[in-house]
From TrEMBL:
InterPro entries: DedA-like, VTT_dom
Name of the protein in question: DedA family protein
Membrane spanning residue stretches: 109-134, 141-162, 174-193
Location of region: Disordered: 202-226
UniProt keyword terms in alphabetical order: Cell membrane, Membrane, Transmembrane, Transmembrane helix
Length: 226
């Protein structure tokens, strides 16, 4: 993540904003990309004054909402065959096991899975396409999608920005400690949401036990002798 931040620092601010929105948007369409790493790195960069936090957060929220909506449209048009193709292309992230867990989360929590899914790597990628494939009503999906995207983007950005500025002020002589503190604070900022959201990734209920086949009660045919 530190290498990502150094690379972002070499870019002009407008390129950073476009990159944040683009990476998060493509990730939200169903393609595994490091959207959260880009957001955290950009928020820490904002604490140094290189970019503006409001634009980082706006770009992240826009990418999340638009990307999820495009993913929803693609999922609604392509259905489960599309999800199966994504699983074959990205088996580590979108394989049958991951898809089954995400589908179970939608079945149990409905649109709340979209909101809290913004804070979980698996559902952050699958929420849009899966909601479309399952024909979740778009208005309900959009409301949960927008709320989750705004809370995630602005909450993460501004908490990291605030803590990073404080760390830069008090820890000028040990800047690495300020960076570590900012990262830890960013992780803690979404802890309670992640704790609840990880329930959405609970293991599937065990399959019902199958009864053993009944023994063959037909008496063996006796061989008659003369």
């Amino acid at each position: 993540m530190f290498d990502v931040q150094h690379w972002l620092e070499s870019l002009p601010p407008i390129a950073v904003y476009l990159l944040v929105g683009g990476v998060i948007g493509v990730e939200s369409m169903g393609v595994p990309l490091p959207g959260e790493i880009v957001l955290i790195s950009s928020a820490l960069l904002a604490a140094t004054g290189v970019v503006e936090p409001e634009w980082v957060a706006t770009a992240a929220a826009t990418g999340a909402i638009v990307g999820d909506s495009i993913g929803y449209a693609v999922g609604r048009r392509g259905g489960r065959p599309l999800l199966a193709r994504l699983g074959r292309r990205f088996p580590r992230h979108l394989g049958p096991a991951q898809l089954a867990r995400a589908e179970q989360s939608f079945a149990r929590y409905g649109v709340w899975a979209v909101f809290f899914g913004r804070f979980v790597a698996l559902l952050r990628i699958l929420a849009g396409p899966l909601a479309g494939a399952l024909h979740v009503p778009y208005r309900r999906f959009l409301l949960a999608n927008a709320a989750g995207g705004l809370v995630w983007a602005f909450g993460t950005t501004y908490l990291l920005f605030t803590v990073g500025r404080a760390a830069e002020h008090w820890l000028k002589d040990i800047s690495w400690a300020g960076l570590v503190l900012a990262v830890l604070a960013g992780l803690a900022s979404t802890w309670w949401l992640r704790r609840r959201a990880h329930r959405l990734e609970a293991a599937e209920p065990p399959a019902p036990e199958t009864e053993p086949p009944a023994p063959d009660t037909e008496p063996a045919r006796a061989h008659s002798g003369t």
